[in-house]
Amino acid sequence: MSRVVWLLLGAALLCGHGVFCRRVVSGQKVCFADLKHPCYKMAYFHELSSRVSFQEARLACESEGGALLSLENEAEQKLIESMLQNLTKPGTGISDGDFWIGLWRNGEGQTSGACPDLYQWSDGSSSQYRNWYTDEPSCGSEKCVVMYHQPTANPGLGGPYLYQWNDDRCNMKHNYICKYEPEIIPTSPVEKTYFTNQPGDTHQNVVVTEAGIIPNLIYVVIPTIPLLLLILVAFGTCCFQMLHKREARRTFIKDSTPLSSECLAESLNSNL
Q1: What's the whole-model pTM score?
Q2: How far apart are alpha carbons 268 and 73 in whole angstroms?
Q3: Model confidence over 81-100: pLDDT tens digits?
Q4: Which of 44, 154, 171, 174 is the most exposed place for a label (fewest CB within 10 A)?
Q5: Is the peptide bond before 38 cis (omega within 30 degrees of 0)?
Q6: CA 13 – CA 222 distance, rounded (Å)
Q7: Which residue has better confidence, 135 or 26?
């Protein structure tokens, strides 16, 4: 019973702080056993209100010991594309939603031809690889870069809005991709790290999953709160009745003991 009460209190506290009340869907961290390739994590949010700005995405990655995605070459770009294809395979319920990567530029809005050369990677990478969509970057007030992920959108001049890059305003809300140093042992006690032997192995490379066990507990516990309260009331009533009966029995025994002694004495005297 105390465990049930603890779960109810935990759910109430979490919802009170607005942490896990919304259903947040994100990807697992994906690592490769050869220790030569970085680990990645796709953070996809089905609810638009849960998506984040560039700075929020950057801080989220860095808080886990990583950084927003930097891309060194076309091979790494193709690897990320394969992960996104796996993430968005039919039946997962994944819809349109661009992903922040770590490319951005500092300074006022430039519209000259030099603008594309002003972009830099937030993790300090010196990579010059770029995969801009046609007529991008548009510069101006758009200083942060997303990887297009709009599978249901009609194609534009540069083809489908899938995996090419676009500059956007940094306060816009999007999904994001984190990149981490290679590792063998998972560092997070909540989220499971997926390991694969080959960078080209796309089998379950990215799994749409809940961000930890707490959300699952909440979705199980909250619908059963009325039943749990009813059980608590019934249990309390039963305990009260048992205590009341026990107290009444003790009182009866206490009051009847002197009377029994007097009856025994009177019976002995009459026989004499």
Answers
A1: 0.61
A2: 111
A3: 988 887 766 555 667 899 99
A4: 154
A5: no
A6: 12
A7: 135
